[in-house]
Design brief:
There is one protein chain. With 165 residues, this protein is α+β, with helices and mostly antiparallel strands. The chain has a domain at 7-91 and 127-147: Beta-lactamase Inhibitory Protein, Chain:B, domain 1, CATH 3.30.1450. Helices cover 28% and strands 42% of the residues. It has four helices and four strands, in the order H-H-H-H-E-E-E-E. It has helices spanning 4-29, 31-34, 39-46, 56-63, and strands spanning 68-73, 79-107, 112-138, 141-147. A four-stranded antiparallel sheet has the order 1-2-3-4, with no helix packed on it. The longest helix is centred in the first third of the chain and has 26 residues, at 4-29. The chain is elongated. It starts with a helix and ends in an 18-residue tail after the last strand. It comes from Synoicihabitans lomoniglobus. This is Lipoprotein.
């Protein structure tokens, strides 16, 4: 191939377009809602980006439907909703023999033909789900997000800010 870098760019662009297609489809399906958003919000959601303050519709269009959700009332009376987006995993489990191939060779030492079978193997993977991203809504707006298995990072304060220079 003359220009492998160009091919990588084209392949990468195709992957981006495939990912954007589902967001574009969701935006079109929810057009009556999405056209009420400011243009900058529409562009951000079209990139699949969410932020604190976004509503259910914005997150649903940007990320798709959650895998599961919980809703409860907080002590102060606010409604808290948690949307779960799991991390899909695959792990190698084993090699499995799927069939045998007949092989025939001529043995020059003995002058005879040798027949035997060679197993054809296939790798078996197991899919699973691990805790992934959780979007936490308070009274219908994104208040925070958290990654499963990770402690939330502390908010920057004067004591723990990184100083440049």
């Amino acid at each position: 191939m003359k220009h492998p870098f160009v091919s990588l760019l084209v392949a990468g662009g195709c992957l981006v377009l495939v990912g954007c297609e589902s967001i574009a489809t969701r935006m079109k399906q929810r057009e009556e809602v999405t056209r009420t958003w400011p243009p900058l919000t529409q562009e951000r959601i079209a990139r699949g980006e969410i932020k604190v303050g976004d509503d259910f519709d914005m997150v649903s269009v940007a990320l798709g439907a959650p895998d599961g959700q919980e809703t409860f009332t907080a002590k102060d009376g606010g409604i808290v909703t948690i949307w779960n987006y799991p991390k899909i995993t695959q792990r190698f489990e084993r090699d499995e023999i799927v069939n045998y191939e007949d092989v025939s060779e001529f043995d020059v030492r003995t002058g005879q033909r040798i027949h035997y079978q060679v197993p054809n193997r296939q790798k078996v993977y197991v899919s699973g789900k691990e805790p992934g991203m959780q979007i936490i809504f308070r009274n219908g707006r994104v208040s925070s997000l958290r990654w499963g298995g990770e402690a939330p990072e502390p908010a920057p304060t004067a004591d723990n800010q990184v100083k440049s220079g």
